[in-house]
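Batch manifest, entry 17 of 40.
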Amino acid sequence: MANRHRRKTEADAGRDLISELPAEVKERILECLPTREAARTALLSTHWNNVWLGHGRLVFDPYFFRCFSKSKYGGEKGIAQINTINDILMLRAGPVKKFTLYLDYASQPPQQSDLDRWCRFISRNGLQELNLFIWPTYMLPSCIFSCRTIKQLCLGDFIFDFPIPSCIFPSVTSLAFKKVEFSDNVKGIVFTIPNIEELAFSNCKGISNFEISSPKLESLRVIGYQSCILDESRWITLYLKTIKTLCLCASLLQCKNAEIATVTFPTAINLQVIELYDLSVSCQEQLAFVLQLLQHSPNLCELKITLANGDGLCDITMATRLLEDPNGCIVKQDLKILNTIMIDWFSGSTLEKLFVKMLLLKSPALERVLIQEYDDIDTSIAVKSLRELLRFPRASRKAQIVCMECDNSEESKLFDYIWF
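Output type: structure tokens
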């Protein structure tokens, strides 16, 4: 009896319990691992090898390529990287649902022909999510434009140029661009993206050249550096009739271009959330644009603003008139549904206080006003500003003003526009 018990205990100790897990559980385990570590599970047993060959979420990022920098390939390091990706792709026993290729400056860039070959393969194998960030700049393979299975697409460091069909990304619902250049050759073409719901640009050039047609678009985000100026502010108004969320870096608007203040705005009937970054309330053109945007957003519920510090060379006098002159571009009708306002980098300038005062007077349904101070603000100025804000008249009796000290930790940020 004791011998049988001993033999049973020894047998249990030698069993591979992990390999006996259901296939869907093992696949979930691989999804939680970096691709480099997931590939190593194939060495455990034939069970894990089969799971790895059917694994359809592949991420080739700097962590994956780090092993090549420690290898002995020497000048053939780039060839080894290319061959490794080729081998992993060609051995797939199932669909590649997610594919990420992220080559940074330290990685060995592939040839355009390599990228074309990889994209042809994955576009024919059930691809649903594609993330491509490759340096230096490449042309996006034509097969991606017509792929009917991709739903989420994120592209970085590409050039949009001819030849490009007018109907692109037929099944994509979420489309994001980072450091993408839209050539003048595509200007004047209205691209049809029939199912897109979310469109985002980060640090892109020639954004105004890229115009789309889609009745399902709900969210538009445009952020970037000063070098990525949005040359044509009317481009934004093309999408105001359909979108529910607008995220805009106000500094991208051409401050020296007087046409910003005279843009004809359609009624943004569906717009519920507006996020504005780097807004200089001392800039007449930016301020006029924002005031008109608010004027034409009758169903706005939430307003988030990050203020730009410093008055620069802007005409403060003209900006003050916009906020104080009832016959100017000030919001003439109430923001009847607006219930939340969040303002970051508040420095307590006269114009900033006038701007807040205007919002308080025009928001009868307002409940929360969260203001986070600029990190270098003087304590005495902060206290004085808070007292003034609390004395401002409010259209809503429920409106509560909360001022917060600046804290650079991630948890304390009111909102964050780093989305890549």
